[in-house]
Amino acid sequence: MNCYQMSGYELGTYMEIYLPKKALYQQFLFRVLTRGFKIETVREHFRAKENRPGILRLLGPKSPWAAYDDEYVAQLRPFLYGYSMYEVDGVFKGSEGSENAVVEERTQVLRLLFRIDLEQVAKDANAETVDRNVLRATASDYLRAHDRQAAFQRSSGQERRIYDAVRMWRDQLGFFVFGYIVYELGKNIDALCSADSILKTEDEIWVTNFANMELDRVLWRDTNRVP
User: Fold this and answer.
1) Residues 142, 101: contact at Cβ < 8 Å?
2) What's the domain count of the chain?
3) In the chain, count of helices (H) and strands (E)?
4) CA distance linking residue 72 with residue 195, whole number of Å
5) Judging by DSSP bridges, how do beta strands 4-6 and 10-20 pair with one another?
6) In angstroms, rounded to a whole number, what is the distance separating the alpha carbons of residues 185 and 32?
7) Checking phi first, is residue 8 left (phi over 0); if not, alpha (psi -120 to 50) or beta?
8) Residue 5 lies in a domain
9) Containing domain of residue 102, as a range?
10) Does residue 111 contact residue 85 with C-beta atoms inside 8 Å?
11) How far apart are CA 72 and CA 77, in angstroms?
12) Which residues, 6 or more positions from 8, have their beta carbon under 8 angstroms from its beta carbon?
């Protein structure tokens, strides 16, 4: 008897980070990514005074997170649900000022999976009595919107509260990806260069965002287990 059972789709998003495939990078990739599962470790990263200048330099002065503080960091929630790594043969246009007009290299792709906690969204939006299907559909509408800011401005009442909760989740997610993961990758690459383990730092690290993902976990149900 097949004891696997669909659990119903969950909302989320996934992002990919592209960087050259190098053996030396593997030693810190696993460490950085697995630490991302531990939200208190991530909070400590942002609270560390020695990290703040580098994080702000990466985010830039016009970033919405340029004035982040301990209160904002304390609100961060677990984001990373899983990740996978794969390799592709990449061909890219060279960076501005680069000697190479076209770059061919083996590229490592980090695919990061993030799942929205709808229970937390309901709590933040004061929508705990809203039917779960309605809550999920409303959150999905916001994630799929071509112009999310315009969608938020047009919304009202319950819909607006749900949109606002999902918007806060996306905002914190971006802060986590760039302020923690990308920052740590860059810091470790720079450390390898400073130690003369690699010739130079990477000209670019690419980050892509696939705004709306549906995840259906097919779960094993032990039919012999007593409820």
Assistant:
1) no
2) 1
3) 9, 6
4) 35
5) unpaired
6) 8
7) left
8) no
9) 12-215
10) yes
11) 11
12) 216
Q: Residue 90 and residue 22: Cα distance in Å, rounded?
A: 14
What pLDDT, on a 0 to 100 scale, did the predictor assign at position 212? Answer: 75
The answer to the question of residue 3 being in a domain is no
Distances from the Cα of 133 to the Cαs of 31, 54, 138, 165, 222, in angstroms? Answer: 37, 42, 9, 16, 27
> Distance between CA 122 and CA 117 in Å, rounded?
9
Q: pLDDT category, 221, cuts 50, 70, 90?
A: confident
Global pTM value = 0.89
pLDDT tens per residue, range 96-122: 766 778 888 899 999 999 999 999 999
Do residues 103 and 92 touch, judged by C-beta distance below 8 A? Answer: yes
Amino acid at 139: A
Residue 2 included in any domain = no
What token pair was written down for 227?
A: 């409820």
7 found inside a domain:
no
Is the Cβ–Cβ distance between 208 and 75 less than 8 Å?
Answer: no
Residue 135's H or E segment, with its range, is helix 132-144
